[in-house]
């Protein structure tokens, strides 16, 4: 390009060994002209990219030359693997945790004494999108029933649910027609979790989606629920689904926790051959963030809270996670 360095000297100067594009103290932000500044910035980015690639190539060559003696590849630092240690992280062999879980509110489900039966309801007088979301959620969770709420208080719904053997109550809240919250209450004795819900994608908004889900019981995958609180939440999600997945349906519901955001996805496997397997997303998908966990069933006034997310106090470090 033009003007990418000093003008060459007149005859007497030795050729410069390597032209430096930018003097070391030069900063692109000093350029007053916006277009020129933008152009130079792009050029600088390009140079950075070139240098990075060259370094990568050089390293690869060195590794190949060393063969088996090459040092192991460096593991990049990520927010996840630099996570601040949480003293409530559960050790799989912890007897105290095992005892607590054998006697907690989900024990009857895990001991197969109860069969999940879920009531999915909405905030008062739901609008189109929330209605469709509830319908699609009901195709993901077996034995779930959708009830559209009109003016009936949750306090009144819960005793009716318990009388009819519902094991869980899910309430989808909305704001300006967009689903934005989930209250999950385990019946009859709680606990109740309140989540913020975001990034809801309905089936028709998912690209390359599979055919409608079948009525088979899906497998459930719970990833990264490592602390005591995480365990409680994981058990809560597990208890929504019947115990024995029907593998013939090849459907799997995933709750993946990453940095305290819980990503929900619903997929179907496609076996292309004995070795190759593909997955198709069926939808819906959404993201949850835990707001609070409360003992007992839904009680906004007098509920006893086990955990409330207080951002100012708790999130003092970007690498501190609670689940």
Automatic annotation (TrEMBL):
<dbReference type="InterPro" id="IPR007109">
    <property type="entry name" value="Brix"/>
</dbReference>
<dbReference type="InterPro" id="IPR044281">
    <property type="entry name" value="IMP4/RPF1"/>
</dbReference>
<feature type="region of interest" description="Disordered">
    <location>
        <begin position="55"/>
        <end position="74"/>
    </location>
</feature>
<feature type="compositionally biased region" description="Basic and acidic residues">
    <location>
        <begin position="62"/>
        <end position="71"/>
    </location>
</feature>
<comment type="function">
    <text>May be required for ribosome biogenesis.</text>
</comment>
<feature type="domain" description="Brix">
    <location>
        <begin position="116"/>
        <end position="299"/>
    </location>
</feature>
<dbReference type="GO" id="GO:0042134">
    <property type="term" value="F:rRNA primary transcript binding"/>
</dbReference>
<feature type="region of interest" description="Disordered">
    <location>
        <begin position="1"/>
        <end position="22"/>
    </location>
</feature>
<dbReference type="GO" id="GO:0005730">
    <property type="term" value="C:nucleolus"/>
</dbReference>
<dbReference type="GO" id="GO:0000470">
    <property type="term" value="P:maturation of LSU-rRNA"/>
</dbReference>
<keyword id="KW-0698">rRNA processing</keyword>
<dbReference type="GO" id="GO:0030687">
    <property type="term" value="C:preribosome, large subunit precursor"/>
</dbReference>
<dbReference type="Pfam" id="PF04427">
    <property type="entry name" value="Brix"/>
</dbReference>
<dbReference type="GO" id="GO:0000460">
    <property type="term" value="P:maturation of 5.8S rRNA"/>
</dbReference>
<keyword id="KW-0690">Ribosome biogenesis</keyword>
<protein>
    <recommendedName>
        <fullName>Ribosome production factor 1</fullName>
    </recommendedName>
</protein>
């Amino acid at each position: 390009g033009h003007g990418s360095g000093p003008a060459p000297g007149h005859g007497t100067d030795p050729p410069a060994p390597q032209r430096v594009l930018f003097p070391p103290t030069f900063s692109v932000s000093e350029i007053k002209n916006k277009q020129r500044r933008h152009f130079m910035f792009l050029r600088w980015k390009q140079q950075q990219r070139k240098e990075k690639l060259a370094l990568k190539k050089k390293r690869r060559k060195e590794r190949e030359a060393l063969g088996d003696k090459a040092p192991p590849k460096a593991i990049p630092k990520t927010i996840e693997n630099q996570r601040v240690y949480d003293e409530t992280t559960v050790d799989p062999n912890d007897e105290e945790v095992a005892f607590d879980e054998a006697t907690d509110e989900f024990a009857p489900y895990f001991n197969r004494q109860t069969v999940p039966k879920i009531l999915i309801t909405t905030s008062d007088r739901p609008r189109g999108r929330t209605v469709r979301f509830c319908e699609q959620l009901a195709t993901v969770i077996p034995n779930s029933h959708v009830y559209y709420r009109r003016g009936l208080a949750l306090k009144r719904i819960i005793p009716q649910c318990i009388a009819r053997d519902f094991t869980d109550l899910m309430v989808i809240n909305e704001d300006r027609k967009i689903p934005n919250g989930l209250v999950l209450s385990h019946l009859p004795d709680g606990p109740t979790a309140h989540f913020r819900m975001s990034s809801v994608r309905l089936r028709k908004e998912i690209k390359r989606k599979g055919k409608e889900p079948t009525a088979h019981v899906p497998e459930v995958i719970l990833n990264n629920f490592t602390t005591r609180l995480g365990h409680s939440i994981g058990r809560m999600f597990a208890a929504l689904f019947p115990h024995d997945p029907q593998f013939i349906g090849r459907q799997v519901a995933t709750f993946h926790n990453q940095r305290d955001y819980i990503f929900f996805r619903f997929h179907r496997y496609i076996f292309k051959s004995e070795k190759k397997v593909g997955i198709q997303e069926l939808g819906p998908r959404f993201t949850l963030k835990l707001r609070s966990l409360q003992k007992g069933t839904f009680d906004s006034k007098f509920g006893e809270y086990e955990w409330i997310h207080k951002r100012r106090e708790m999130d003092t470090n970007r690498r501190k996670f609670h689940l």
